[in-house]
Specification:
Length: 381
């Protein structure tokens, strides 16, 4: 028997407005590659050439610090662990933390130099301190990236200066950024710091989103090389929702800031997250039972489900509960008895198991015989 959830259709279609399907393309026009995802669910809200191989430039550094965060979390290192600054690290060109060779600097200082100052010298020092050599560390970076789903990425160094086969995609960079946010919340705030001073030299965080008040952005990393253009992995949180944007291949700092801001603002404005069922609210009520101590039972889902919805397409969302009625007792709490199918425009059908909300024991032998007799005579129990 098929039941249509009209109540949910009403909830999701109430008080929404139409969203233009071309806005994402318009905002990302100047980017060669772009992606916008919902951090909680991983849902892609917009993408453009998201799987095209591109030079990640200094956005590489989010993978470098990922491995440092891992070592901090599992106790192999602590924030005061000393990192030796080698002549190789000291000589590394490009953006710098201005480290002194043959000195020791704490891991926390190095992390700030990598994240806030985008120091290539700090990145090499980090790689050597954690991996022995930068080459070994780059291999570990690649292996870890693949293990968390960033399978099209290949790192050859820890800083992002252009090398053959040092490539990634904006989708992979979004995956890495999301993993950092979700796995290391205790260390993620480093990305939101706006400046850092080392050796008497104060440098600002290059992330332009941090200075845009209405976004409440708090990460992650910019990048720029002649080959890759201007890029950014950014994240912001608003009203309990967090989005991640990645853009690359832009021609200027201004374009990078504008495109990433507009995509994030559009994502917050035109999409919303719906979690159901609400506390204490079943998905389907009053489903008939057969030979049960209770004549009916409610159905729910195993745990609340969050779905990202385009506000302009809410009226097109269909939700159907599919199950066979009556349900034969005994019925255990949490027992799967059906499927909730959610059909959304331009997306594949999502199926979520429907389960028994509260256990229903079967009736005793006498009631079973009586129910069977009533069914034979009257057609019901």
């Amino acid at each position: 028997m098929l039941k249509i959830l009209l109540a949910f259709l009403f909830i999701f279609s109430n008080g929404v407005h139409a969203a233009s399907p071309t806005l994402g393309d318009a905002y990302a026009e100047k980017a060669k590659e772009a992606i916008l995802i919902d951090c909680d669910t991983g849902t892609v809200l917009y993408e453009k050439n998201a799987d095209a191989l591109t030079y990640p430039s200094s956005m590489t550094k989010i993978m470098s610090v990922y491995l440092a965060f891992e070592r901090l979390k599992d106790g192999r290192m602590n924030l005061q662990s000393p990192i030796l600054i080698s002549p190789k690290a000291w000589k590394t060109g490009g953006s710098r933390m201005f480290l002194n060779p043959n000195t020791h600097v704490s891991l926390e200082e190095i992390l700030k130099g990598v994240i806030i100052q985008s120091g290539n010298d700090a990145s090499v020092a980090l790689a050597e301190g954690l991996g022995g050599t930068e080459e070994n560390f780059a291999r570990e970076m690649t292996e870890k990236a693949h293990s968390i789903g960033a399978k099209n990425t290949s790192f050859k160094n820890a800083h992002g200066l252009t090398e053959d086969d040092h490539v990634s995609t904006v989708r992979d960079l979004a995956i890495i950024g999301r993993s950092i946010i979700k796995e290391f919340p205790e260390y993620y705030p480093y990305f939101g710091e706006t400046k850092y001073t080392h050796n008497g030299i104060t440098q600002p965080n290059r992330n332009p989103l941090l200075s845009i008040g209405h976004l409440k952005a708090d990460g992650l990393k910019t990048g720029m090389t002649d080959e890759g253009g201007y890029g950014l992995v950014g994240s912001a949180e608003k009203d309990g929702r967090r989005l991640i944007v990645v853009v690359n291949g832009l021609k200027s700092e201004k374009d990078r800031a504008t495109v990433s801001e507009q995509l994030l603002s559009w994502g917050f404005r035109e999409f919303e997250n719906k979690t159901f069922p609400k506390s204490g609210m079943p998905v389907v009520q009053g489903v008939k039972t057969w030979l049960g101590e209770e004549p009916t039972v409610d159905l729910t889902v195993q745990e609340p489900v969050t779905i990202v919805l385009d506000k302009g397409k809410m009226k097109q969302i269909k939700m159907e509960a599919i199950y066979q009625e009556p349900l034969e007792a005994p019925l255990a709490q949490g027992q799967v008895v059906g499927t909730l199918q959610i059909t959304m425009p331009d997306q594949s059908i999502r199926e979520i198991p429907l389960v028994i909300a509260k256990a229903v024991p079967s009736v005793g032998p006498f009631k079973r015989i009586l129910s069977a007799f009533n069914y034979i005579i009257w057609g019901h129990s």
